[in-house]
Amino acid sequence: MNVFKDHIRSLQNFHNERFINLHSFKEFLDFRRLAWPRDIIDVQQRMRCNLSRFSSNYAICFGLIVLYFLLTNPLLLFVLLFTTGGFFGISRLNGQNLHIGHIFFLVPCFSITFKALLIITIPLGFIASPISTILSIIGASSIIIMSHSILLEPPITCTFEDGDA
């Protein structure tokens, strides 16, 4: 029971530390501050300031992009859930037989059940095209995050923090 409480406490600490600098979406999507950068130095300054300032917002954007690509590829989502559930279910059996109600299933040893799970999930994983999904996630998130960080003018406080003024 203490392990469960410690795990919940560590998740709460991670959440509090990670999202402490979460800015409101009104500030994050302020279209009045969008402008083309003047030169490459301006691009570097904007990226440095905006990537550090909106890192939690960008993490949420990345998570939403991953969720979108998983929901639009249902076979990949099924393979991930089936594999995770299979590994979890096999490890929960602890080498014992499976009882569902009055039905008794004879379960072979660990290695055979894991091999059977892999024989089912590896071909389905190739059909689900995870590599193209990962590349699409990387491309979409980099375009969205980089374009936002380049086009959004940083506030005047970032200029004073860098020491350029």
TrEMBL record:
Location of this chain's protein in the cell: Membrane
One Pfam family hit: PRA1
Keywords of this entry: Membrane, Transmembrane, Transmembrane helix
GO CC, any one term: endoplasmic reticulum
Topological relation to the membrane, as annotated: Multi-pass membrane protein
Predominant location: membrane
Regions crossing the membrane: 56-83, 103-127, 134-152
Coiled-coil parts of chain: none
Similarity remark: Belongs to the PRA1 family.
UniProt-recorded name of the protein: PRA1 family protein
Taxonomic placement: Eukaryota, Fungi, Dikarya, Ascomycota, Taphrinomycotina
